From TrEMBL:
This is Metallo-beta-lactamase domain-containing protein. Its cofactor is Zn(2+). One of its GO terms (molecular function) is hydrolase activity. CDD domains: metallo-hydrolase-like_MBL-fold.
Length: 209
């Protein structure tokens, strides 16, 4: 199991292509659809689905490019299903933009604890706070969690946008992410990778956890 990180768009969002043999999953195609498609083609893999950790504008800008190119389904938490078309909720209006995506074909809920697509088996962790429907995808076989904007190297997600709540975010991180093995690689929506253990030891926002 491997992954390729592409940093895209004006706010340097991390898009991930996870691949196993000839199959792939695309997580958070945020912008620069041509760049993402070129990377997929270079890897010579077949995407099976697009997964969203949440539906903020910087994570959805290239959803339709990738989905239309490969005719694959889109998964998002049901609490943010309407964010794909609502520029106020997805935050693009706040930044003077209008970024949208077509409706998702698969809606996840807090009760969906697992997701199997092709050869990929994810644990679905509900990690709200940065946004109400934020989820993290834990790929145990790879020892990695795709945390979206919940947890960063040395920081946590902002909570001043629509639906954000810092207390809920800290609870999510503590109960869901900090319970993963310390060697788990954290692949965030922005910035460099880190590990659960490193964040336990040094993240200034997680004192007492």
């Amino acid at each position: 199991m491997k992954w390729k990180k592409l940093t895209v768009g004006p706010v340097q969002e991390n898009t991930y292509i996870i691949y196993n043999n000839k199959e792939a999953i695309v997580i958070d195609p945020g912008s620069e659809g041509k760049k993402i498609i070129h990377a997929i083609e270079s890897l010579n893999v077949k995407p099976l689905a697009v997964l969203l950790t949440h539906a903020h504008f910087d994570h959805i800008g290239a959803v339709d490019d990738v989905r239309d190119k490969y005719q694959i389904p889109l998964y998002v938490h049901k609490k943010e299903s309407d964010w794909l078309s609502n520029t106020k909720k997805n935050g693009s209006n706040f930044f003077g933009q209008s970024i949208t995506a077509n409706a998702a074909s698969h809606l996840l809920s807090d009760q969906d604890n697992a997701l199997k697509i092709g050869s990929f088996s994810f644990e679905v962790l509900s990690t709200p706070g940065h946004s109400p429907g934020s989820i993290s995808f834990y790929l145990k076989s790879a020892g990695a969690v795709f945390s979206g904007d919940a947890l960063f190297a040395g920081s946590i997600g902002r909570t001043d946008l629509y639906g954000g709540n810092q207390d809920i975010l800290l609870k999510s991180i503590h109960e869901k992410l900090m319970n993963l093995p310390e060697e788990t690689i954290v692949l965030s929506g922005h910035g460099p990778e880190t590990t659960i253990g490193m964040e336990m030891d040094s993240n200034p926002f997680l004192g007492g956890f």
